[in-house]
Amino acid sequence: TNELRARLSAIVDELGEIGSPDGTASFAASEVDTVTEFIDQLQVYEGAMYEISTKLEILDSEFQVHFSHDPIHHMERRLKSIDSIIEKMRRKNLPLTVQSMRDNLFDVAGIRVICNYRDDVYSVANYLSAQSDIQVLRVKDYILNPKQNGYRSLHVIYAVPVFLSSGAHYTPVEVQFRTIAMDYWASLEHALRYKTDLPDAKLNEHSQTLLDCARSLQNVETQMQSIHRDINGAPQGTQA
Ligand code: GTP
Ligand code: MG
Q1: How large is the ipTM?
Q2: Rounded (10°) angle between helices 118-129 and 29-67
Q3: Hey, whose CA ends up nearest to atom 1 of ligand 1?
């Protein structure tokens, strides 16, 4: 596909830089093998991302049918760009090999699941985690334990089998579960983080205000959740 071709040329550029400081890329057969292996691996990550999204869509529609309730507001998914993969591996002083990417990067495939209510976050996450064909590699519950800056979300890294001609390849996918309010907050906080041209005093003031906003949003969410529980009965799925 065109997208893959674009990725390929990005890797070729990158390898060119590494291979020859003057940028004239001439490739040994082993480098071409590495590029091919890299692209194959990205395709496996993409497959893993689709597997998990499909599972989430199936859960969402089951809830609609059985409980007349839509737990998932919407989903976003992305494959980490080649530039970000290389940047992260350099930052962590990892060798630029496919093996090391597989062993060390768990967020190459990422899905964000934006739910209506906090109960939905936990029921969708728990139902997905209980599925027998996938494994939970890591859980970080920033809803139970919010970050200092006010960030809240539930992060789970799953390993999901992707079936190729060579058999099952268990591949990690990072899933961030959060409510609409948490997503609303995280978007602005993310934008502020990359706004480096503001004076420090202004940045600090905004960070403090954002922390206040996080607490207010959490209160609003709790109150609305409780109205919703009264209207719809007990929450579906296991409670946190
Ligand atoms: P790295 O991925 O190496 O940074 O470490 P990690 O995987 O241990 O990080 P963690 O699970 O804490 O967070 C991974 C992702 O969550 C980030 O890439 C962001 O998308 C999101 N995230 C984490 N903390 C924050 C935050 O404070 N603000 C916002 N807006 N997003 C965050
Ligand atoms: Mg990460």
Answers
A1: 0.95
A2: 120
A3: 107
